[in-house]
Amino acid sequence: MNQVSIDAHPSDQAIIVRFEQSPTNVESLGHQKIIHLKEMSLDVDIRALSNVILQKCLFIPATSRSQLEQVLFYIQKRGNQRISARSRSSSAVSFDRRPIHSPTISAELGKIDEYIECFYGETSVEKNKGAVALYELSKNPQNLTQLVNNETLMMALARVFREDWKKHFEVGTNIMNLFIGTLCVNAMEHETKRYDFWIAEMKKTDQETLRKLKTAIRKQAMLLAACVTFLTNLATDISVELKMVRRNLVALLVKCLQMSSESTSSLTTATIKFLLKLSIFDENKIVMEQNGTIEKLLKLFPIQDPELRKAVIMLLFNFSFDSKNLPKMVNGGLVPHMASLLDSDTKALNMMYLLSCNDDAKAMLAYTDAIKLLMKDVLSGTGSEVTKAVLLNICLEKRNAQLVCGQRGQGLDLLMEMSINSRDLMLIKVVRAISSHEGATQNMFLKWIETLIGIAKNEGADNSESKSSFGLECMGTVAELKVAPWAKIIQSENLVPWMKTQLQEGIDESEEVTVLRDIKPLQLQIVIACGTMARQLDAARLLAPLIDTFVQLLQSCQIDDEFVVQLLYVFLQFLKHKELSARLMTQDSALGAHMIDLMHDANAVVREVCDNALLIMGEHSKEWAKRIAGERFKWHNAQWLEMVERDDSEFVDYDDEDFGADLKFDHYDDGFDMNEPLF
C-alpha cells in the first residue's frame, strides 16, 4: 500500500482517504473511503481522535499521522456543524463507500473571479468548492453565455480537469457536469424549439430559403446526434441519468425522434439507443407512451440499417409487455415486418412471440411467410424454444393450423413424427393446439390415434416428469378428436379398464364420505376424453360401467371447478342418449341430488352445464321435472320461505286472561257446522 492522501470532506464532518493497493502481478487499484466524525467541537482531543482512527483504519499508515491531525484540526476549526443524513454507528467513526453528492450552495454570478481563485488552491476541497459554485450557476440558462465567454474561466476549467480528474473524482464530476452535460441539454432544448420555427417557415417561404432551411435542419440533426450520444455516455452513472430525466430529457428525445423520422440518420440511431436505455424504468416509458413514441417507431419500418433495426425492435419489445401497447403495434403494421425477419433476426423472433399472443396478429400471420419460415426452422432441427412457442401460439388460430397441416396432412405428419421420435414437449403441444380445431384437420389425426393412446397409457402416469408431461399432452390431443370411431377404438385399445384404474387412483372408499386425496392431471384429461367419446351412442354404451366412478369423483372433488365442469359434461352426454338416461335418473339417484346442489354454484360455467343437464332430466321424467321445479321455487323464494318459517317458530299460545275476558270456546255455538257442505 502506498500513496495515501487525506483530505477534508467539502461539506460533511468527515475525512476522505484515498490510497492505492498493488497486489502481486496486478495493476495498482485505487480506493477511496469516507470516515465520518461524530463530533468535532473544540473540546475534542485531536491527538486522541487520530489514535482511534489509526487503530480502526489499518489502511492509514502511522507515517501519515501528522497529515491526519492537520486535516482533523482544519475540520475542527471550520466548525461545520451539519450532520449528514447517513446513519451513524455508536463508535467515533463510520465508513461509507457511496459516492459523494455535492451539496447545493448559493452561488452569485458576480463572484466568478472568486470561484476561479479556488482552482488555484492547494487542496481538492478548495477546487471542488469553486467547481460546485460554477455548476450551480450553469443550471440557469441565462448565465451560460457569460460563463462560456469568460476565457479565463474556460482555461482554468480545462487545466484543473486535465490535471486533477484522475486524483479527485468529485472535482472532475462537477466540472464535467458544468462543462458539457448542462450545455448539451440546453442545446437540445434550444434546437428543438428552433426546428419547430423552421418547419413553420418552410410552409410559407420561397425555394431558395427552403433549400437553406433544409440544409440547416440536416446540420442541426448532426449537432443533436452529437449531444445525444454524449449524454448517453454520461448516463452510465445512474445519478447523472436521473438529473437528465428531471430536466425533461425523455420528452426532448421523443421530439428528436420525430425530427428524424422522415429520413433516418445518425440522430435517429443515437436517440433510439438512449430511449432504449431509459425504457427500463416504468416512469420513463409512461412519458414516452404519452408522447406517441410507439407510433413514431412504427413509421421507421422497413429499416435497412441492422444496428438501428435491432435497437428499434428491442425498444418496442420493452413496450410490448404492457397489454394496451400490443394492439397499437398490430394496427400499426408491425406483424408483417417482423414476419419477414424471423429467419435472420432473433430480436424479431422474440418480438413475434409477444405479438402472437394477440388474436388479430395471429389472423394476420396467415397472409405472411411466417408459417413457412417457422416450420422450416422447426423441422430442420435447429428451431429454438422461442420458435416453437411462436408456432404454438399461431396454431391456436384455425386458418394457421390448416396451413401448418397442409392439404394432405403432410405438415402434421412431419410434426407428429418429430415430436414422438424426440419426445419434444413443445412440439406435441403444437400438435394438441392443431387438434382443437374442428373440421378437416381432425380427420388427419385418425391414423395417429392408436399411437397417441399407447403413449398416454405407458407414460401418462410415469414418475418421470418429462415422460408424464408428454403422455399427458398425448391424452389431451386424443380428447379433442370428435370425429374418431370411438366405439371401435375403445374396444381395440381396451380403454375402459385402464381408465377406471386411473380414475379410481386416490379415491378413499373406506370413509363415510368419499374423498379424493389428489386430483392428477391425467385424470382430468381422461374425463375430458370420456366427454368427447360419450357424444357417440355406441361409445357411450361401452363407457356405462364408469358411471359409478364418475359419481364418486363428483362427490369428492367439488372444490375443483374445472374437474366438476368436465364431469358434468360427461353426464350431460349420457343424458342425451335416452336409453342411458334412465340409469342416471332413478328416484334415489345421487347424480340428480348433486345436480340440484350445483345448479346455483358460484361458477357460471358449472351453472350453465348443470342447467342443461337438469333440462334434459326434466324432459325425460315428470318426477324429476316436479322435483327440479320445487327446488328452483325454494331458491327464488328463499327469503319469503325463511320469513314464514321464522313466523311459525315465533308463534306463542296466549292464555285466556291475556285477552281480558273468560271465553269458553268449547261451548261457544255460532250455528256453523264444519261437517256440513257449503254448497
Mean pLDDT: 81
Q: In total, how many beta strands?
A: 6
Strand order of the largest sheet: 1-2-3-4
Span of the ends, CA to CA: 126 Å
Shape: elongated
Going by CATH, the architecture of the domain at 485-637 would be Alpha Horseshoe
Class of the domain at 485-637, according to the CATH hierarchy? Answer: Mainly Alpha
Helical fraction equals: 55-70%
Low-pLDDT residue intervals, each spanning 5 or more residues: 23-29, 80-103, 654-679
**Radius of gyration computed on alpha carbons:** 41 Å
Chain-wise SSE layout:
Blueprint: E1 2-8, E2 14-21, E3 29-37, H1 46-56, H2 65-78, E4 93-96, H3 112-118, H4 124-138, H5 141-148, H6 151-164, H7 169-202, H8 207-234, H9 238-246, H10 249-260, H11 266-278, H12 282-290, H13 293-298, H14 306-319, H15 326-331, H16 334-339, H17 346-355, H18 359-365, H19 370-379, H20 385-394, H21 398-405, H22 410-422, H23 425-435, H24 440-443, H25 449-459, H26 465-479, H27 486-492, H28 495-504, E5 507-508, E6 515-516, H29 521-533, H30 537-543, H31 547-556, H32 561-576, H33 578-584, H34 590-598, H35 604-620, H36 622-636, H37 638-650
Antiparallel strand pairs: 1-2, 2-3, 3-4, 5-6
Helix pairs in contact: 1-2, 3-4, 4-7, 6-7, 7-8, 7-10, 8-11, 10-11, 11-14, 14-17, 17-20, 19-20, 20-23, 22-23, 23-26, 25-26, 26-29, 27-30, 29-32, 31-32, 32-33, 32-35, 34-35, 35-36
